[in-house]
Amino acid sequence: MTERTAGDDSPLSPTKDWGRDLDILDPRYVDDPFSVWHELRDACPVAFSERRGRAWMPVNYDDISAIAHDTEHFSSRRIGVVDLPEDAREGRPLLTAPPITSDPPEHTWARRILLPAFAPGRIETMTPITQDLARELLDSIAAGRRADAARDYAQHIPVRVIAHMLGVPAADEEMFTNWAVRILQEGFNDLQKSLDAIIETLEYFGARVDERAALPADQRPDDLITLLVETEIDGEPLDRRHLLGTCFLLLLAGIDTTWSAIGSSLWHLATHPEDQARLRAEPGLIDSAVEELLRVYSPVTMAREVIADVEVAGCPMRSGDKVLMSFPAGNRDPAQFENPDEFIIDRERNRHVAFGSGIHRCLGSNLARMELKVAIQEWLDRIPTFELADPDAVTWTGGQVRGPRTIPVRW
Ligand code: HEM
Predict the structure, then answer these.
(1) Is residue 338 part of a domain?
(2) What is the CATH number of the domain that holds 82?
(3) Residue with CA at minimum distance from ligand 1 atom 35
(4) Fewer CB near the last or first residue (10 Å), C or N of the chain?
C-alpha cells in the first residue's frame, strides 16, 4: 500500500491519523474498527475527515444518540457514508428513499404508512415462512460436512423473506442480491456501478407497480407493493418518486444488513466454542444471545447532514458537513456497557443502538430479530458442533454495512 502524502486526497491511500483523517473504507478499518474506536476514545471522541467532503464521526454512545434525536441540526437527506451523484437532468439526488431519507414532517407520514406491515403480529406470520426457507437451505448444507455459512446460508434468508413481503418473485433473488452488492458494497469505490444498479432497481419496481395498478383492486395481491399503490395522502396517491423510492428502500434495507448480522452470528459461534456449546445446552438464551450479537457485531453505519451550525463534544460542525453515525462504535462504549468488547450471552442490561435511535429507528427491527433468531436456531438444530474450516479465508465487507461475506465452516 502507498503512504498518504500531503495534497494526496485519493480515497484509496491509507490513513495515518484516524482522528483527523478518518476513512471508514480503509481496509484496516473494515478489518478491525474496534481498535480504531479505542484509539479515538482515548484521544478525541469525534473523528474528522475531509476525504469525501467534511465529515465527523463521534464514537461515544451519548453523542451518537443525541445526534440521532436532533432533527433540527441534523438531516437525513444524505444518509450514505459516500454520497451518490446527483441526477444531472434534475439537479437533485437520483434517489429519495422515504422514510429513511426524509425529515419531519414528511418522515412522520411516510413511516406511518409502513408501520402496521412491520408490527410484531404481522412479522409473526412470517416466522413459519422463514423457517421453511432456512430448512430448505439446510437440507442441502447438512448433506455435507462443510459449507460457506455466509454464501450458502446467511445471504439467502433475508432477500427471500423481503421478496415474499414485497410480492416479487423469489426467482429474482440473484438480481436483488446483485443490486445490494453493487449499491452497498462495490458502489462506494465505483459510483457508476451503484448508479446503474439504482436505475435498474427503480425500473424493476416501476414495472411491478404498473402491473399492480392495472389490476382491479380486488384482484391485487396482499403485499407491500399493493399497500403502497393503494396508499393515499390527503386524497392523493403517493407520487411515483416516493413510491418507487420506498420500494427500493424496503428491498435494500433488509438484505445485506440482516445477511451481515446472521453471518457475524455464525462466525461468532464458529470461533467461540464455549458460546456455541452454551446456546446448544440452553436454547432459552436465544433472545439475549441475539441482542448481544446485534450489539457486538452491529452492522450498520448511517450518515446525517448538518443543516445548522452546532457544536458536539467541543467540535464545531458546520452546515453542509456530514456526520457518520457509527451505531457500532456506540455499542462498544465502556461508559454505556460494562466490558463492552466482551460477548456476554446473557447480558442483562443491553440498550444497544444497532437499530439506530430516534425517529429513524429501524422499521424492520422485529423482522430482523425474527430472521436472526430463526436462522441461528435452525442452523444449530441441523448442523452439529461446527468451527471455521479456514480462518484465513474469511472475508469481511465494510462501509455502510459491515459483515462477513465468506465463512468456510466444517463439522
Ligand atoms: C440486523 C438487521 C438490521 C439492522 C442492523 C438495521 C439497522 C438500521 C438502522 C441503524 C436504521 C436507522 C437509520 C438511521 O438512523 O438513519 C434502520 C432504519 C431502517 N431499517 Fe433497518 N436494519 C436491519 C434490518 C432491516 C430490515 C429487515 C428491514 C426491512 C425492510 C429494515 C428496514 C428499515 C427501514 C425502512 C428503516 C428506515 C426507518 C425510518 O427512517 O423511519 N431494516 N435500520
Answers:
(1) yes
(2) 1.10.630.10
(3) 363
(4) N
Q: Is residue 17 part of a domain?
A: no
pTM of the full predicted structure?
Answer: 0.95
Quick: pLDDT tens for 282-314.
Answer: 999 999 999 999 999 999 999 999 999 999 999
Euclidean distance between CA atoms 286 and 315, whole angstroms: 41
- Evaluate whether residue 18 is within a structural domain: no
491519523: which residue's cell? Answer: 17
**Ligand 1 atom, smallest distance to 68 CA:** 15
What is the amino acid identity at position 289?
A
- Domain range enclosing 272: 27-410
How many domains does the chain contain in total? 1
Quote the cell numbers at residue 77: 437527506
CA of 6 to the centre of ligand 1 (A): 38
Q: Is 122 exposed, middle or buried (0-12, 13-18, 19+ CB in 10 A)?
A: middle
What are the pLDDT digits (tens) for 246-265?
Answer: 999 999 998 999 999 999 99
> Rounded to whole angstroms, how far apart are CA atoms 250 and 114?
10
Residues with CB under 6 A from ligand 1: 68, 76, 79, 99-100, 111, 158, 162, 249-250, 253-254, 257-258, 261, 299-300, 302, 327, 354-356, 360, 362-364, 367-368
Size of the chain in residues: 411
Nearest atom, ligand 1, residue 353 CA? 10
Indicate which residue's Cα is closest to atom 37 of ligand 1. Answer: 100
Q: Which strand (E) or helix (H) includes residue 39? A: helix 33-43
Phi, psi angles (nearest 5°) of residue 104: -65, 150
